Amino acid sequence: MDINDLLAEASCLLTDARQETYGSFWDNHRRIGVMWSELLQLEEPITPELVAVMMALVKISRIANDSTHTDNYIDAIAYIAGAGELATN
Hints:
Low-confidence stretches: none
Strand content: under 5%
Radius of gyration: 14 Å
Number of helices: 5
Mean pLDDT: 93
Number of domains: 1
């Protein structure tokens, strides 16, 4: 799989029918941040962009364990791209 394939697959994760199932990237990550903040008993909710960065770190940890599983790279790319969009808009 070349770089263009990886980027195209990652782009699909942010723009395909998943949003119909899970809601927009922002809404989904906002909900996750609220839930994590409640679980950790934080005073301020974890921001949606920080949730996306944290999810990318999960994927990077999985890559460290098995560098041949392509889905982890695609997911990490999508999470970082989503975090960048959330942080800059």
